[in-house]
Each structure stands twice: as structure tokens, then as C-alpha cells.
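Checklist before submission:
- one chain only
- standard amino acids only
- sequence pasted in full

Submission:
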Amino acid sequence: MDIKNLKEISNKLKFEIIKTAFDKQKGSLGGTLSCLDILIALYFKPILNVSSDEANDINRDRFILSKGHACVALYLILKKLNYIDDETLLSYGDNGGLGAQLDYYIPGVDWNTGSLGHALGVIAGMALSARMNSQDYHSYTILGDAEMSEGSIWEALTFIGDNKLSNLTCIIDRNRLSVTEELEDVGLFRDFNRIMSSLGWEPIEIDGHNYDEIITSLQKSRISKKPTIILANTIKGKGISFMENNIKWHGAIPSKEEVEIARVELNQGE
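Returned file contents:
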């Protein structure tokens, strides 16, 4: 799929995400929109070797969206790729329906989310399993930048580098805003390339909304001799003027008037 098509999918999904949040009166829009272009590249380019027709194929790629509060984006993608049906999608937010975090009972979902800091260790286990069983699938995860301060993340970073798990790609959604504060260039982000190289990783820094850069970095990661960590610089609330870089939109729900503004800005018709 070419970049023009990916951009069209992005605008359509952005509005569907916003409309879903309004209809169900729940959602985490800012951080969902910041990682959406990465998700679209993974599933629609496609980078991920997955298919709803072979959802249980042991040789398919693995993917964990660690920042599970961005689940609505993934639900919509899974619907478009025939993993889930309309009825299941419409159950989002209902008692017994799709929840505000991911669960592995959902077709196309590889791991539960909710407690941050665990996905990198889990995906490391999946990558190690592939090596031990002589399987050639690739394992991916998207982490939030605030999550990188978790101690379990640092343990996993060291484990993956020490074991040279070159069949693993970690993508950091670097939108620089957590639930409550701006995230400065401290810790891992103080000297990203040097720190990650010293831990045995291949570091790549990109614009997380530029499809050329996203796709090139992901393709490169599949042939790297080292585990790859991609620092994707993104904008929280990307694509909606009143949401961009506004910490309010980590959990705020748009009004009917704001939904209409988003519709116009995304050119999504009546």
C-alpha cells in the first residue's frame, strides 16, 4: 500500500477514534493519536506478517501494544482486517464487551495490558522462544515514553541486548507527555543512541508521523543483526488542532461541537 493510501486510512481512523470516544464517553485520545501512524504502517503497509485467516499460525509475527490505553485504534484496525466483527467492535465500553485495555481473548491480541512495564519482557520471551524453536517470526512492541522509567523495562532492555535478540523490535512513542506532566530528556532520553548502543541494541530515531521514515526503520529492523529500538518522535493528539500537545487530551472526551471540528479538519464528510 502506498503512502497516500496510508494517510487516507490515518485520517479515517482518527475520526473513527474520536467518534467512538464521544459515543461511548470513554477513551484516551491523545496517546492513541500519537501512535496511530505507527500502527497503520505495521498493519497496512504491511510490516507485520499476520492474517486473520491464519490468526493462530505459530509462525506469524507477534505484536504487543504495551500502551493499552490506545486500544481503540487497535480495535478499529482489527475490525478492518476481519479479526473482529461489527458487533464485537460496538461492544467497546459495554459491560462484558471490549474493555479500555487489551485482553488476549480478543482475536489478534497477543497479550493483556493495563499494568505498564511488562510488555518488553513478555515480547523478549516470545523472541527468545522463536530462536529456541528455530522459528523465523519477528516480535514487535510499542511502548509509551513515560513507561521507560519502569525498572522492569530496564531489566528487559539489558536481557534483550545481552541475548542478541535480533528478531525483536521495540518502538517508543515519544510524545513527551504523560498523564500529568511533560517528559524531559532524562534517563534513557538523555543520550539515547549511546545508551542503547552500549546495551547491545541498534538505535534509530525517526519522525513517528512520517511514513517514509516509519516504514524504512521497520524494514531495516527485520534484517538487523541486533535488536532494534526505534525512538519515534510523535505529537500527542496528532492531527486535531485543539488536541495537539495538550495534556488535557490524555483522558478528556470531546463535545459534540469538537467532534464536528475534528470531522472538518480530517475531511471526513458529513
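Reviewer check: Residues 17 and 52 are 22 Å apart (CA to CA).
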